[in-house]
Amino acid sequence: MSSAGECDVAGPLTAPPGRPPVEDAVRAESDAWLSSLRARGEERELAIVRLHALLLRAARFETARRRPTFPRLGGAEIDDLAVQAADDALLAVLSRLDSFRGASRFTTWAYKFAIYQTAVTMRRRAWQDREVPLEPESWALLPDPGKQPPQHAEDAEVLAAVAQGIAALTQHQRDVLVALAVNEVPIDVLAERLGTTRGALYKTLHDARRNLRGHLAALGLRALPTTLAEEAR
Amino acid sequence: MNDPRRATALRRLLGPEGPEVTCDVCFEELDRYVDLQLAGVDAERSVPGMAAHLDGCPACSEEHASLTALVTELSRSHPPE
Q: pTM here?
């Protein structure tokens, strides 16, 4: 996984007191997995086979979800990606067994590695022959504020302020913000091309966004609802 | 913003306003967060800043959606005895 970023984190990350996150039956199932995977000989080998099957099921689930975005890939090629992701996830799970805290089902914990490996593999596959644009490919959704019709004068003011705010960012912040937020380059793809990590890039994106919001706030502007949920209301 | 597509574009640029966890914390907590959500527990109370991060990070959001969908589907096809 990527290195730790330093975004503002709100409060402790422990479960609230008085409510165990998992029940006894779930804990027993998780303990059984851990015991078998830490055993020796045939018991461990069988547990690893079961774990790989579980991870492969998760990887195939993820490739199936993303299949529509790969119309040119055949079924065998897609399945090869799933098998490779499951193999990678198996190594990740086995190397991190000691980090399993029992805060969730063991299977949910293991599945996340398969989902992550598959998602990263497929994002990179989708972009493997494409250049990563660091300049805006299109400002179609954020057009020249000077060309806004009169009834959208307030919008034009916000857009002009956003453009100023982006221009005031550092070059690296601007490159990352444009690539991720405007050109919608997947963060794993950008991290690979720039030789960095998802966490480090997200920290840069977080700082760029904070600076941009600060610029708008200093001008007394509020650009949009905070979340899609607010937007829907 | 009157144009919803433009509002979405601006939202991607500006990101969530509240405190948020990092991608690393998101990955570490994702399994617990999903299990809590599917159990009907207030997952955000247990992992403050997770919802904001999922709102601002498309990659983590996709993985959260996939893990949720997978665990939901498997719990339906293999319900606990």
A: 0.84
